[in-house]
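Form 12-C: Joint structure prediction
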Amino acid sequence: MNIVASELFNKDTGFLRRMNWRKATGIVFLSLQVLLVVAARFTDERAFCWAPHDMQTEYELTCVVNGRELEEHEISRRFRIRKKGRDPRGVGNVKQVLVQHCRTYGKDDDVSIIMEHTINGIRQEPWRWQCSPAAG
Amino acid sequence: MQPRSWLKAVGPRNPFSCQSDTLPVNLVLMVKLIALGLLLKGYLFDLSDHFLPYWPIFDYLGPFHVFNDVSQVAFLAGVGGILFSRSIRFGSVILGLVMLITVVSSRVAYSNVKFFCGCILLLTGLADSRNPAVLLRYQMAIVYSGAWINKVFDPDWRSGQYFEHWMSAIIKREFYVQAASLFPPMLLSRVMCWSTIVTEMFLSAGFLLRPLRQLSVLVGVYFHSMAFLLAWYDFRMFTIAILSSYLILVRWPEKLGVSIDPGNRLHRWIKTVFARMDFDRRIDWKPRPGGFMVEIFEKNYSGFQAFKRLILYSPVSYFGYVLILGLPNEPFLWFKLKAVQLVLIFFFPYWEMMEALKVRPHWRKRLPEKAGKKA
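Section 2 - Result
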């Protein structure tokens, strides 16, 4: 730790001496990442927290929009993810794509989604999501 | 005009030159390799069109296709600025921002590789002239810290379940399944998972602590290369990007002093090849009858050690390696795997490890002492 402190605070060569806007921007940028790594502990979404390929989620979607079940190509066009696929970024990432679409681009539709999925090969309880134009 | 003369006529604007007034050679080389890798791996066509952004403000930035077109133009401008040395810092910032905006502006376009490249490029553009690598080293420490922290808190990584499932069901490596069957259930997978965690812990410290930096380069390069060899998959751009990032820890010499025997045909061939690749004129060739020697940072290396270092301190070698790794897996996977294996075997520091362990093979004692001291 003395080596790190010396590198940062040394009177003549310390990085934190003679601050300028570029250094400050970089430090803020890195600090944000540290916060996001900590925040990732409290959510099942794995984004911006340096958790690459740490969770293999294999899923199959059943999506009913306005009373009609969507076919495979319709799900791909609507959500830009496959009806049946694998996501290495985390199950939360898949869920948030579906939820955000329902709340934004698809907010005028009555949508019901069931996601059957496994995480690292272990079957999970099906995830269900429903939103209607009235509830939003 | 011959291609080489044309490149030299362009001067420091040629893509293989790593000269810069504001950035050290190792960082210029790093961003050029990343820019080249992004181009080769087709990321120009994998940019976001702000579909389902993390920040709602992106939904107000015009039609999808316009956003995508602007991103592509900025991408090409950044890559061009970096590769042709028009403005490496500015190009790094532009390309870095394009990659970061791509991941922030679309959940479906998010990938850790794009995020990583964006961070490295942006921080290189912001690098301080006096301590250019500090922000980058802290970035790498955060990357590895985030990785091992996430794994340690994941029960599937602690138990080995992740590796067991990934190797047997996702990428289906038969040799791994057979090897795992020789041990108690889940033991090999648990060892692999915890080895990964411990390695990432070490690397996160290695980027911060000066005494660990050299060893971190060795461990990190071999760790990520072995992941490629194990998975038969380069994780698209990730292998290129993460290997290039280890140049952050490499101290690059201003000059290399290379002594060759003019009467030796092999030495003359070496000079012909490496002089052509030396676009920055860093190699100082000297005639020296009887031996091939390379001087770097006031240390002399001879024979095979010297030849390895000549390759390692030639930027063109790295471009060649990225060109190989940038080939599509179909149909070049076998070629890429062999190239990586060859590099790992060729550059393994056998002598340095024996020196460190104070082991001298019996046949070395019989060789006469050569002129110049060994590192």
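Section 3 - Comments
Chain B touches chain A through 51 residues (CB under 8 Å). Confidence is low (pLDDT under 50) at residues 365-375 of chain B.
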